[in-house]
Amino acid sequence: MTRKSKLPLILLAVFALTQAVIGRVVVFPVWVKDYKPKGNQANAGGLSPDQLLLSLAGFRELIAGILWVRADSFFDTGNYDAVLPLIRLVTILDPHQIDVYATGMWHIGYNFTDEDQRSDRRYIPSALALGKEGANNNKETYEMFFETGWMWYHKVDDDYAQAVKWFEDAHERPDIIQARKNLLSMAYFRAGELEKGIGLLNKLYEEAVVAENKADATYGNTQVRETIENNLDTHLVRFVQRGEWARLQDAKNGTNTFEQGDYDTLPPHDVGFSARVTVEAPRVIRVEGTWNVLPIGSRIRIVLRDEDYPNAVPAGMQWDMTDEVTLDPPKDITFMQDQLFIRNRRFDRRIDMSKDVTMYPFTKDKYVVEFYYNPRSAPPHLQDKFGYTGIGFTDSNFLDLQARNGERVMYAKLELTRDQLLQRGEWADRNAVVQTKNFDPGKRVGSQKDIINIPNLRAKG
Amino acid sequence: MKQIWSIAATTLGEAIRRRVLLVILLVGVVFIAIAPGLGVLSARSETTVLRSMLLGIIQMTSAVIAVVLTVYMIPNEIERRTIYTILSKPVQRWQFLLGKYFGAVLSLAVMMALMTGVLCIAYWIQQGYNAQGLQDLLKAPVMFFVQMCLLAAIGLFFSTFVSPLVNFFLSGGLYLLGSTFSLLFQDMLANPNAPGVAKMIATVVNVIVPNFAYYNIQNPIINPQVVIQDEFQNYVKIMAYGVAYIGALLVAGILIFDRREV
Fold first, then answer.
1. Spans of chain B, pLDDT less than 70
2. Is residue A100 predicted with pLDDT exceeding 50?
């Protein structure tokens, strides 16, 4: 090779071009698909320089493990705010730590509360986004699909089609454990897919019988079979008594046996909702009203939110509005959600938001107070009257078929202004009062006994 | 060819005698040996952490060895004037450079093989005999070896025209950049809000900077539930990338060294 030879230059050009083409066109897509660590590395900025260096040098799982141990110690000391960024870092560094995803989701969704233990619902979309991310990063196991479904089922407790979707995804994974399987049937019932619910219980029962009859069966197999058998029995009786079987037959045959039958859900029960909201002090409201239902398990949802709350729906929001896990939701929006408990066919609750100004900033001019009840969320003893989907439920004033796409729910809305809630301006020395048109103050006085003649399981169908 | 082999063999002998390299190697071996005891640091599966740590230690130690080994290669020869003795014989400069490079590669092979042997023993003690697990685990050191060959080529390339100290930081910095840039680059590409110009510049940088991250294949090994299709083909592609880049660096190094006054 002489200095005047062009061979080295040609070789250099060929090698340089080859590495560029192979690297960018051939290897990069493969690497992104199969080998790139999951998670956005740009978000790992919370690591100290030594941790970042170590994690980049290949000790990601070790650093993630150490951070998780540290997060655990913060849990023990009640320092919840410090836990959140650590959870995020751990999931970025090691996106296969399912425990961290599941715990993080629960923590974000449940543990940020005000002085009265009301969850900060502004965090729920982030909790669901974390669950979605965890499921996407761990598709081979049922766990995060189940956990995300559980959050829809239990915490959101409203959109059961979402719970069904996630639980079904969990069921597709072969590692799902027996005890988790039954919940899908419950989600089916609440989502109004009754035949699917009964069908799944039947299928699980058959599987449980096979497992119980195997040579290596344990006492646990018998327990599983008995649990499913009990569930199936109960639901079959309820299915008939609530008239759902008759309605299914009517739909198939074009008959009208349900209307003519003696079913517990007939005639629909008027819950007689009315409400009054009084602003007693800045950020403190008193909510009173009537609800003509048994006390045990009767909970009416109340929401106080900005009128223009982003992605709001009646008495809720689009909980899966984002795929981004935001640990710091906007501090200028207000969304309070609580439950009203019933006693003597009335509710009377004082809600104090004055101790948690960051959670209830009240920066907007207009607010709505929403009341919502979905019979699908009701406990079984109330559903014995209301039916699985609310066919035995009505309210002469506030039955709403629009709020949840045709579902039979109670929905009422009142309006308040910022000045009223904070007792400013013309409301500085007055208590604002808003109420539904049917609210009768006279009904507040005296005592009316609880109604306890809700039907129960009985021998004849 | 004979000249290249002779220089490579001499370089290997020198590397094995260098104390600094042996100390680094010893530190790596000790860390690998005690790694099984550190699994308790994590709340997660000990196997996962153990694999992560063992592979991390091998990679880090090998990278330090590769840099320290190559940054002194040409400057030391010039400083000690041994290069005159060699070049006065019928040895071309390009043969000298290639010999040095292959010597470095051989040294790396020996040292990494030693660490991998200790890794196997540590893994076996901790996890019991698991042929499949061990076989999976060993894929990573093989790819790390190609990665270190690339790093050695960078060190040797810079050693043809910069001092060892500057070379140390240049090669080390490039290794860090090459290990991290692809991660950030991919995140940037996936971010719809990133400016188009920034994406374009990042693409150019991604093409120029050696992508060491391509050899970090430990993710599916540490987390075996991740299923990879056409794994062997992937490795061949990644190795081809490394060979092409090493070829470019060696030719560039030869061109510079050929024109340098020694």
1. 38-46, 222-227, 262
2. yes
Give a yes or no: residue A79 inside a domain: yes
Contact A69 B59 (CB under 8 A): no
Helix (H) or strand (E) holding B8: helix B2-17
B94-141 confidence digits (pLDDT tens): 888 999 999 999 999 999 999 999 888 888 887 777 788 788 888 889
Q: Count how many domains chain A has.
A: 2
pLDDT tens, residue by residue, A424-457: 999 998 999 999 999 987 665 445 555 545 555 5
B246 burial via Cβ count (<10 Å: 0-12, 13-18, 19+): buried
Of B43, B248, B259, the CB nearest to A19: B248
DSSP string, A384-406: HHH-SSSTTEE-TTTEESTTTTT
Query: Does A221 lie in the same domain as A349?
Result: no
Residue type, A195: E
Residue A452 lies in a domain: no
The domain spanning residue A207 has which CATH number? Answer: 1.25.40.10
If asked whether residues A200 and A344 sit together in one domain, one would say no
Look up the domain containing A323 and give its range: 269-444
Task: Say how many C-beta atoms besides its own lie within 10 A of residue B92's C-beta.
Answer: 15
- In this predicted model, what pLDDT tens digit does every residue of A281-337 receive, in sequence order? 999 999 999 998 876 778 999 999 999 999 999 999 999 988 888 777 788 999 999
Residues B68 and B24: beta-carbon distance below 8 Å: yes
How many whole angstroms separate alpha carbon B235 and alpha carbon A35? 11
Q: Would A177 be classed as within a structural domain? A: yes
Query: What whole-number distance in Å separates Cα of residue B95 and Cα of residue B44?
Result: 51
Q: How near does any CA of chain A get to the CA of B139, in Å?
A: 13
Q: Where are the domains of chain B?
A: 2-259
Both tokens of B174, joined, read: 């490039």
Cβ-Cβ contacts under 8 Å, B148 against chain A: none
Domain check: are A233 and A351 in the same one?
Answer: no
Q: Verify that A232 and A295 share a domain, yes or no.
A: no
User: What are A419's two structure tokens?
Assistant: 């000045």
CB contact under 8 A, A31 and B207: no
- A402 and A304 within one domain: yes
A353 and A423, same domain (yes or no): yes
Whether A458 shows a pLDDT value over 60: the answer reads no
Closest CA to B47 of B251, B222, B235, B261: B222
Whichever domain contains A324, its CATH number is 2.60.40
In this structure, the strands spanning A274-281 and A433-435 are antiparallel
Q: Out of A3, A15, A59, whose CB is closest to B52?
A: A59
Predicted ipTM of the assembly: 0.76
Burial of residue A398 (CB within 10 Å: 0-12, 13-18, 19+) is buried
Same domain for A317 and A236: no
